[in-house]
């Protein structure tokens, strides 16, 4: 009797269609399950949600830099690269499967689309643009389209000062993110900042400020496009082009829609547009496509050999550069892991330690270390080569003293936003290393030290972002100064300082209020208005 084939379903549609929510519900209905996500932040968000339903002892989180895997875990939330595909699960899902067309990571998504299967049910979640390639590569798959829950409409170009509250402003460089956040600090009291390089802890702390209403604006990179659930009403693009690692190019319509679609949650409608004065405008055709969720169909995905041979380095490289034989698949561009491997293959010190196929396989594992610090091919290759001198000979592990000294060097919470971000990126590298069970003598202890350091640096980074991009006094007065809001608590201190809801706004000498001399010129009107409003009752009592 032939084995029963598992149900294979492709759930396709734009953002805010409940695809991920459906997959989580389906996974939790099975005896076991695993979902592969495009971002560590999203995997963490869904992990927390599943833990609330199933209990912490039953749920695992596996990403490159984080591994929580209780012995009895049955439901797994992973990044696509970190999915333990050798394990068997009743349910398996791949989220944002259209990333199979991404030059950097596409071949990994394609491999999971073709081969990752649940024993009872498999779901592929993604854009409607996947329909033709799913039909071609997976003819047995049932394709289900889901409509968006709410309307997404174009709102044109708006000045930063005219953006509605609950807006997300999306930029494509750190410099742009900082510039917009600085301006919002002066004009609107501040903004939360979300970038892909942030640790989950920092990102969650920043998002909590936005979600709670402490700040009304969020400045982000395109990291918000991949399913992060935020209460956003409007998305404004600072630019419609970005540097993709090799060239500066205009965003594709699908990329625009992925980001714009963050506006509006569930039944609430959303809008999108650009920042006036920045020189970027949507074409009428792009607006029509985004509002109608109509994008160019994908007729191909990137592919790379997932099970190369390790006879020798030349064979490994040849297999990794092999062209696919199936229609609808294109060879993946040479991304950093393969470029690093080719550089290592030219180094005499590296080749001297290659004696058996097992050494070739281990070298490939080391070459696949992600470039979290964005150092580029040459510098990252040198770093990987230095690790290989430990991992390729003698005890074949990185000495604990070396690992500990690297963490100690990074254990410093002083510095600005960029300095702290760079330290966190370096810690992510060492955290990844600690989750390779055969690279260290005591991986759990080292992983815990790295995790604690990342949390410490993340808290410092959140504080640095808050100090740089949030003016608590201005934010409080802008948010709570509306006429329909009751008067805030006012305190007159012994030295005549006036505190409104704990924030110092100036001094009261007799009946004369004087603005805090340290206040910026642009804030003086706001503080005088606050005094006039909140001190009226106190002045009447004095009279």
Indicate the topology.
Blueprint: E1 7-12, H1 19-29, E2 33-37, H2 40-54, E3 59-62, E4 67-68, E5 75-79, E6 91-94, H3 106-115, E7 121-126, H4 131-137, E8 142-145, E9 152-158, E10 167-170, H5 174-188, E11 192-194, H6 200-212, E12 217-220, E13 234-237, E14 241-243, E15 248-250, H7 253-260, E16 270-275, H8 284-292, E17 301-303, H9 313-320, E18 329-331, H10 336-344, H11 348-351, H12 357-367, H13 377-391, H14 400-410, H15 417-434, H16 443-469, H17 472-480, E19 490-492, E20 497-500, E21 503-509, E22 512-515, H18 524-534, H19 536-542
Describe the structure concisely for a colleague.
The protein has 19 helices and 22 strands.
| Number of individual domains | 4
Number of helices: 19
Helix content estimate: 40-55%
Could you give the distance between the termini?
96 Å
| CATH level 1 class label of the largest domain | Alpha Beta
Strand order of the largest sheet: 4-3-5-2-6-7-1-8
């Amino acid at each position: 009797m032939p084995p029963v084939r598992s149900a294979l379903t492709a759930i396709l549609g734009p953002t805010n269609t409940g695809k991920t929510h459906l997959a989580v519900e389906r996974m939790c209905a099975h005896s076991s399950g695993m979902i592969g996500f495009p971002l560590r932040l999203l995997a963490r968000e869904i992990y927390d949600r599943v833990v609330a339903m199933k209990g912490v002892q039953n749920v695992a989180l596996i990403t490159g830099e984080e591994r929580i895997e209780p012995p009895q875990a049955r439901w797994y939330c992973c990044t696509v690269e970190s999915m333990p595909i050798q394990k068997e699960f009743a349910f398996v899902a791949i989220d944002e499967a259209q990333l199979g067309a991404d030059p950097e990571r596409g071949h990994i998504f394609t491999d999971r689309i073709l081969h990752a299967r649940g024993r009872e049910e498999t779901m592929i979640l993604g854009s409607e643009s996947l329909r033709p390639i799913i039909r071609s590569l997976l003819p047995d798959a049932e394709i289900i389209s889901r409509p968006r829950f709410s309307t997404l409409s174009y709102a044109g170009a708006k000045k930063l000062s005219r953006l509605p509250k609950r807006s997300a402003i999306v930029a494509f460089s750190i410099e742009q993110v900082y510039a917009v956040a600085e301006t919002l600090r002066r004009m609107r009291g501040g903004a939360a900042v979300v970038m892909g390089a942030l640790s989950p802890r920092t990102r969650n702390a920043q998002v909590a400020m936005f979600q709670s209403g402490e700040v009304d604006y969020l400045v982000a990179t395109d990291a918000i496009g991949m399913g992060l659930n935020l209460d956003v009403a409007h998305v404004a693009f600072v630019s419609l082009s970005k540097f993709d690692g090799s060239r500066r190019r205009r965003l594709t319509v699908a990329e625009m829609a992925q980001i714009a679609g963050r506006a509006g949650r569930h039944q609430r409608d959303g809008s999108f547009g650009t920042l006036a004065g920045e020189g970027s405008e949507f074409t009428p055709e792009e607006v029509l496509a985004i509002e109608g969720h109509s994008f160019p169909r994908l007729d191909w995905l990137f592919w790379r050999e997932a099970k190369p041979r390790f006879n020798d380095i030349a064979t490994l490289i040849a297999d990794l550069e092999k062209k696919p034989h199936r229609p609808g698949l294109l060879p993946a561009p040479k991304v950093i892991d393969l470029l690093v491997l080719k550089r290592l293959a030219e180094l005499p010190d590296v080749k001297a330690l290659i004696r058996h196929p097992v050494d070739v396989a281990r070298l490939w594992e080391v070459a696949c270390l992600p470039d979290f610090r964005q150092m580029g091919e040459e510098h990252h290759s040198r770093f990987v080569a230095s690790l290989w001198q430990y991992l390729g000979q003698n005890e074949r592990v990185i000495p604990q003293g070396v690992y500990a000294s690297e963490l100690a060097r990074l254990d410093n919470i002083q510095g600005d936003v960029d300095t702290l971000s760079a330290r966190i990126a370096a810690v992510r590298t060492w955290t990844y290393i600690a989750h390779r069970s055969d690279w260290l003598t005591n991986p759990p202890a080292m992983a815990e030290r790295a995790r604690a350091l990342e949390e410490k640096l993340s808290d410092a980074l959140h504080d640095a972002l808050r100090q740089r991009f949030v003016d608590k006094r201005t934010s409080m007065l802008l948010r709570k100064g509306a006429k329909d809001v009751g008067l805030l608590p006012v305190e007159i201190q012994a030295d005549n300082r006036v505190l409104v809801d704990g924030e110092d706004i100036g001094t009261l000498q007799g009946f004369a209020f004087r603005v805090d001399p340290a206040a910026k010129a642009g804030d003086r009107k706001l503080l005088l208005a606050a005094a006039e409003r909140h001190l009226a009752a106190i002045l009447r009592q004095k009279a």
